[in-house]
Amino acid sequence: MKSKPAPEQPAEPQQPVPVVPSVPTIPQQPGPIEHEDQTAQPAPRVRHYDWNSAMQPMVGKMLQADGVTAGNVLLVDSVNNRTNGSLNAGEATETLRNALANNGKFTLVSAQQLAMAKQQLGLSPQDSLGTRSKAIGIARNVGAQYVLYSSAAGNVNAPSLQMQLMLVQTGEIIWSGKGAVQQQ
Length: 184
Known about the structure:
By secondary structure, this protein is α/β, with parallel strands linked by helices. The chain has a single domain, classed as 3-Layer(aba) Sandwich (Rossmann fold). 25% of the residues lie in helices and 20% in strands. The chain has helices at residues 51-63, 89-100, 111-120, 132-142; strands at residues 72-76, 80-83, 106-108, 146-154, 160-167, 173-180. Strands 1, 2, 3, 4, 5 and 6 form a six-stranded mixed β-sheet that branches. The termini are far apart. It comes from Citrobacter koseri. Keywords: Cell outer membrane, Cell shape, Lipoprotein, Membrane, Palmitate, Peptidoglycan synthesis, Signal. GO terms for molecular function: enzyme regulator activity.
């Protein structure tokens, strides 16, 4: 007898095999870009100025100005850099303080007194007072009658030095001068 083909059973549907996504690899950070020495930037040029030659004649004129009375206390504010570049304003300030040392007219507020007064106002000792009003505020704080506000302005290669002597009580500018500063 011929065997009858068994009735076909419907095949059980195949369960799909779950696909587990692979974990992506984390790319490595590239190392620092290393340049050959030839491409290194040259160090910025350090400029040296003859502050003393610019300041001495101005200080001489200021000490002779009308309204300057001997025996008063003078606050010398840091020289502000208002040029188009970088210059060492600390060196300029030091030169100015030295030009005024033993001037016979004023007693200078010491650098220590100035640093303490700045600290009381929340300023760092390196902060230039920046504005005339801040300079006058500090001067009142240290008992100075005068403030010398100075700034270097213009082209950093040939800056001009501007100075203003102000009366602390009124804020009045009683003397001002301007001079060219030469590079050494």
